[in-house]
Specification:
Length: about 200
């Protein structure tokens, strides 16, 4: 009889210990998530918040890229090569421009966003490797025509209209001044500014 009471006492003591551990873990996790909440994403910081295309452009379909750069060059389509890093305020701001371009040209242009930190360090690169075109600044965007010739190479906050003009020329479209301006519905505060 004494042994059964001792066994019950040990089981109860073990359950109390387990409950206390679980309660402590729950409190620690709650504090951790309150302090490091992903809701603190900020377009005005150089802090890593997550993928910039998902957070600031509302377009998670850009990453990972649907094609490698080498494979994209083999297609009979223009290619947009965009260098970025996720912890750059300039790249965060520019993500909505790339997404906006994809809204209108996504079926006829191959988009290849490349995280600049993922470019392997080598002494030299071939023209079918992204490192061949990377100039050490982000954001950087290049537009290649269907014959793989660079038609535009810009760094920093390039305006959507400047990129659109190059693409209109490639596709023999009327200039923006002669055609109805395309509009899209905004779906978040960062891409919403593009619809104005």
């Amino acid at each position: 009889m004494i042994h059964s009471h001792l066994d019950e006492f040990r089981v109860m003591r073990g359950q109390i210990w387990l409950h206390r551990c679980l309660l402590g873990l729950a409190i620690a996790l709650t504090c951790f998530f309150l302090v490091l909440s992903p809701a603190q994403a900020d377009v005005e910081s150089d802090r890593y918040d997550g993928n910039i295309f998902v957070l600031y452009a509302g377009d998670g379909s850009l990453v990972p890229a649907s094609s490698t750069f080498k494979a994209a060059l083999s297609l009979p389509k223009p290619v947009i090569l965009a260098f970025y890093i996720d912890d750059s305020r300039d790249c965060k701001r520019f993500a909505s421009v790339i997404s906006h371009l994809k809204d209108f040209y996504g079926r006829v242009v191959v988009f290849v966003p490349i995280n600049a930190d993922s470019i392997p360090v080598k002494d030299s690169y071939q023209p079918d490797e992204p490192g061949y075109y990377y100039e050490g600044a982000v954001p950087q965007i290049l537009i290649f025509d269907a014959e793989d010739q660079v038609r535009f190479n810009g760094k920093g906050q390039v305006k959507y209209e400047e990129l659109d003009d190059i693409l209109r020329e490639l596709f023999n479209l009327e200039p923006r001044t002669s055609s109805v301006e395309l509009q899209r519905r905004s779906y978040n505060e960062f891409s919403g500014e593009m619809a104005e």
